[in-house]
């Protein structure tokens, strides 16, 4: 395998840090060309020095001076702003782009990388949730492969490698159920952010951990699977699997089900994406089936977790509605993390904003960005009203 040059969009977040963990194990196979982050200039500067990175971009332009001073005397050039990210990600010196920025902000640089024909290791769910049809169309047009980094979609991808052209009957996405799986609805309604941030199996950033607690994360993954694997939503099933050992399954027309199993460690799907098609050694915990014992499965409860039902509804309506859902969810999750709204306020605001969105059946890129801006503002107004009511 020839050495691959990596750009990591969101290097200071959970996926970005774990991508660098993988690269540390295989310095002979990967080199880091570009790092970006929102505002954590100290950590990114340390990363840039450790990996002798050529370029580092801080998206918060007010932090540029701090980053530049921290990199003084190194070989890393400092830049600021999203335009710099979009420009640098198209460089001939970049082979693979790990798209790990959080939220809608990841869409523009990912599209820029696709337009330059880069291989995309996609960890940013919102890119396909907000603009799946556009992004997948660009991927085909510019011959830019999209390799999934989400553990569930990586699992499906790995299962499909055995399909050999045979049609699939159904995709089964597994879900841990989050921290509130066994709670009743009244108890969930009083949940605090500290409770919601205690995921039982995975170590993730705050936003995705809250999305897991509401099960909106699983709804996003249904939409991702629809676009990544060109599969109708009615053939994508969600099953709660608390142990998080089976990361997802593919069922074929003859009833056979192929599953991908591994310990809950995001470094495995990250490494599979950036090393594909080779499977490289990884210093992770391997499964001990005798120690594992029993594994269990349950149907998701959409009464306790209405966000999952909203995601299916968004895909049924199509057009720009998934984008509206995502925008409202970003605003609502941020408000919950600031203790401004209750837990179920998240799904309430998302549902209301989806109903208010002006439907566009075949949105353009401009329509997607406009929908995101308008619905995010609408959600903010609804958050203010909910906060005032207490």
How is this structure best described in words?
The protein is built from 17 helices and 11 strands. The protein has 390 residues and is an alpha/beta fold. It has a 7-stranded parallel β-sheet, with helices on both faces. It has a 4-stranded mixed β-sheet with strand order 9-8-10-11, with helices on one face. Strand 6 (119-122), helix 6 and strand 7 form a beta-alpha-beta unit. The mean pLDDT is 95.
Features:
globular, four-stranded mixed beta sheet, seven-stranded parallel beta sheet, 390 residues, 17 helices, alpha/beta
**Taking strands numbered 1, 2, ... along the chain, how are they ordered across the largest sheet?**
4-3-2-1-5-6-7
Number of strands: 11
- Structural class computed from helices and strand pairing: alpha/beta
Instruction: Quickly count the helices.
Output: 17
Percent range for β-strand residues = 5-15%
Cα separation of the termini: 58 Å
How would you describe the shape? Answer: globular
Mean pLDDT metric: 95
- pLDDT < 50 stretches: none
What percent of the residues sit in helical stretches (DSSP H or I)? Answer: 40-55%
Radius of gyration, rounded? 20 Å
Q: Main β-sheet: number of strands, strand sense, barrel status?
A: 7 strands, parallel
Order of helices and strands: EHEHEHEHEHEHEHEHHHHEEEHHHHHH
């Amino acid at each position: 395998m020839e050495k691959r040059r990596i750009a990591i969009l969101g290097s200071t977040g959970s996926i970005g840090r774990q991508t660098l963990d993988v690269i540390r194990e295989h310095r002979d196979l990967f080199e880091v060309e570009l790092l970006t982050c929102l505002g954590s200039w100290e950590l990114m500067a340390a990363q840039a020095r450790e990996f002798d990175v050529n370029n580092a971009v801080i998206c918060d332009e007010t932090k540029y001076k701090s980053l530049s001073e921290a990199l003084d005397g190194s070989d890393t050039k400092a830049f600021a702003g999203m335009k710099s990210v979009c420009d640098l990600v198209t460089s001939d010196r970049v082979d693979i782009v790990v798209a790990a920025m959080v939220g809608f902000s990841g869409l523009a640089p990912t599209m820029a990388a696709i337009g330059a024909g880069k291989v995309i290791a996609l960890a940013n769910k919102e890119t396909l949730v907000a603009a799946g049809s556009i992004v997948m169309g660009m991927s085909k047009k510019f011959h830019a492969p999209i390799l999934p980094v989400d553990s569930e979609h990586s699992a499906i991808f790995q299962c499909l490698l055995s399909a050999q052209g045979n049609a699939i009957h159904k995709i089964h996405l597994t879900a841990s159920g989050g921290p509130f799986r066994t709670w009743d609805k009244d108890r969930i309604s009083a949940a605090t952010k500290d409770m919601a941030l205690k995921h039982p199996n995975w170590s993730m950033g705050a936003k995705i951990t809250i999305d897991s607690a509401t099960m909106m994360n699983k709804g996003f993954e249904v939409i991702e699977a629809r676009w990544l694997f060109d599969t109708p939503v009615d053939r994508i099933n969600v099953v709660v699997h608390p142990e998080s050992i089976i990361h997802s399954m593919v069922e074929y027309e003859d009833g056979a089900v192929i599953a991908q199993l591994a310990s809950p460690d995001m470094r495995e799907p990250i490494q599979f994406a950036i090393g594909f098609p080779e499977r490289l050694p990884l210093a992770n915990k391997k499964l001990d089936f005798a120690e594992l014992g029993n594994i269990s499965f349950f149907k998701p409860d959409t009464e306790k977790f209405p966000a999952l039902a909203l995601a299916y509804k968004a895909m049924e309506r199509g057009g720009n509605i998934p984008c509206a859902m995502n925008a409202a969810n970003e605003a609502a999750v941020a408000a919950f993390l600031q203790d401004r709204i209750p837990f179920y306020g998240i799904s309430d605001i998302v549902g209301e904003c989806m109903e208010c969105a002006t439907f566009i059946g075949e949105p353009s890129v401009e329509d997607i960005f406009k929908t995101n801006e308008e619905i995010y503002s609408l959600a903010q107004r609804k958050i203010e009203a909910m906060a005032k009511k207490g």
